Amino acid sequence: MLDWLQPGITLAGCENASPLERIDTRLLLMHGLGLTRIQLITQSELVLNTEQLAIMDGLFSRRIQGEPIAYIVQEREFFGLNFHVTPDVLIPRPDTELLVELALQYAPVNSGLLDMGTGSGAIAVAIAHQRPDLQVTALDVSPAVLAVAQENASRHLPAAKVKFYCSNWYTALSEQQFQTIVSNPPYIVANDAHLQQGDLRFEPVDALTDYADGLSAYRHIIGQAHLHLLADGWILLEHGYDQAESVRDLLIKARFTEVQSWRDLAGIERVSGGKLLALTSEQT
C-alpha cells in the first residue's frame, strides 16, 4: 500500500496527499470509485473502505510508474467525444484535431472519405459525427485495433455509419475511390529516443514508428493515392514536427497541386496535403 494511501483517508485527503497532478488524481478517483465530478466534490469527506483502498492503490501505483491515464481509465476525449482506448491503440491527441478540422473543411458534401490506419477510430468517428453526409471508410491492419474503432463508432454513430476494413493500407479496397483521404500514419524515426520516454513507452510501437526514416508510410500512401483518390480530391496527412517539407516534396512529385502545410495551436506545421491534379486530354 502506498505510504500516503492508508485507512481513514478521505476523498479530499487523497486529492491533497497524492503526488500526482490534481487532474490525474481526480480522474483516477472517479474511475476507480465510480464517481462523477460532482460526487467527488459533494462527498469529499467520504472515508475509503478496505476494498476502495485496494482499488485506488493499484490505480495510483500504475500512474506513478508512468502508465498513461488514458490506458488506466480506458477513455480519452477527442473532438468533444469520449473514446474508448486500450494499449492496442494510440492515445488520441489534441494535435490531431487539426486533421479532423481540415477534413471537415475540404471534404465535399455527400462524398466519400477514407481514413487510413484508423487506430481508435477517433479521426473517422469524429468526422462522421460532424458530417453525417459523408460516406466514411476506415482501415487498419490489426483486427484488435479495428475492434476498438468499431466500438467507438457504435458509441457515437448510427449502426454501420463507418465502413471498416482490415487492410494493409490500400490492399483490401480493390478499386474503391474517394474524394478525400486522411491519415495519421507511423512517422517516428527508428530508434528515436522519444520512443522510450513518457507515454510513448506504453503505446503500440508499430503505430508510432515505421522502423526506418519516418517517411515510408507517406511514400506508400502518396505513391498509391492516385488509384483511390478521385480527380481534384484532397489528401491530408498528419506528420512529425520536422517532416512538413519532406511530405510536401513527396506530394509534389506525385502530381499533387495546391500543396501546403497547416500549423497546429503550437505553431508547428502538423498537417500537409494537396489536391490530386486531374489529367488533361493532352496528358492522357
TrEMBL record:
InterPro entries, per database record: DNA_methylase_N6_adenine_CS, HemK-like, N5-glutamine_MTase, PrmC_N, RF_methyltr_PrmC, SAM-dependent_MTases_sf, Small_mtfrase_dom
Name of the protein in its database record: Release factor glutamine methyltransferase
Gene Ontology process terms (BP): methylation
Domain Methyltransferase small: 96-192
Transmembrane segments: none
Sorted UniProt keywords: Methyltransferase, S-adenosyl-L-methionine, Transferase
Residues reported to bind S-adenosyl-L-methionine: G117, T118, G119, S120, G121, D140, W169, N184
PANTHER family per the UniProt record, alphabetical: HEMK METHYLTRANSFERASE (PTHR18895), MTRF1L RELEASE FACTOR GLUTAMINE METHYLTRANSFERASE (PTHR18895:SF74)
Organism: Undibacterium pigrum
Catalytic activity of the protein: L-glutaminyl-[peptide chain release factor] + S-adenosyl-L-methionine = N(5)-methyl-L-glutaminyl-[peptide chain release factor] + S-adenosyl-L-homocysteine + H(+)
EC number: 2.1.1.297
Purpose: Methylates the class 1 translation termination release factors RF1/PrfA and RF2/PrfB on the glutamine residue of the universally conserved GGQ motif.
MF annotations from Gene Ontology: nucleic acid binding; peptide chain release factor N(5)-glutamine methyltransferase activity
The Release factor glutamine methyltransferase N-terminal domain, residue ranges: 18-73
Binding site for substrate: N184, P185, P186, Y187
Family: Belongs to the protein N5-glutamine methyltransferase family. PrmC subfamily.
A Pfam match: PrmC_N
